[in-house]
Design goal:
This protein is α+β, with helices and mostly antiparallel strands and about 200 residues long. About 40% of the residues lie in helices and about 20% in strands. The radius of gyration is 20 Å and the shape is globular. This is SCP domain-containing protein.
Length: about 200
């Protein structure tokens, strides 16, 4: 396999994992940016709208006849509680103290998940709030250490098992130094978008 083919393969594999799970530190975005820069293209081009025939009044793209009355960013508070229970049960099984829920951290995690859905991105750095650690600090939450896990999945339980199956995410959930947790889970058209925030105070 030549060097270009190997690079493309790595970008595709890492890019695929980047879509569904993001640990606190993820090199996939850096690798993808580097690959695109080497190709001389570091932006994603917008799709070109096909020309429309003035005689044809039909829309270029299908429009739903019954739009969903709910907003795309519906916060699932019961699912957040379920996620916290699953994380704490796993910590107890591993001889660790359960994490305390911090209301301000819950709100921050909710806002991050809403922001990802409404602004159509999936990253530790928000175009609205900046890096997750800055977002947490700007809310007046003081910490000695902070971590973030992100996931997209069909449902909350699946998101939890995906996170537990990934070593960097599992390390955040089972970090003995973390003391508090905040979880924000928001419904999107594909399932759920999950933000887990952890701090040590």
């Amino acid at each position: 396999m030549n060097k270009k083919a190997l690079t493309l393969f790595m970008v595709l594999v890492l890019g695929f994992s980047y879509i569904f799970l993001l640990p606190e530190k993820c090199e996939a975005s850096w690798l993808l940016e580097r690959y695109l820069a080497q190709r001389g293209n570091n932006t994603v081009e917008k799709p070109v709208q096909p020309p429309t025939d003035p005689k044809n009044t039909a829309p270029a793209y299908p429009v739903p006849t019954n739009p969903d009355p709910q907003t795309p960013s519906m916060v699932l508070k019961d699912d957040a509680t379920l996620m916290i229970d699953m994380v704490n049960n796993e910590r107890i099984k591993n001889g660790l103290k359960p994490l305390e829920v911090l209301p301000a951290l819950m709100k921050t995690a909710e806002d991050k998940s809403i922001d990802m859905v409404e602004n159509n991105y999936f990253s530790h750095t928000s175009p609205t709030y900046g890096p997750f650690y800055s977002m947490v600090y700007s809310r007046g939450i003081r910490f000695r250490s902070v971590g973030e896990n992100l996931a997209k999945a069909r449902n909350t339980k699946t998101a939890f098992y995906l996170l537990m199956g990934s070593e960097p995410h599992k390390k955040n959930m089972l970090n003995p130094y973390f003391t508090h947790i905040g979880v924000g889970i928001v419904k999107d058209k594909y399932g759920v978008v999950v933000t887990q925030l952890f701090i040590a105070q």
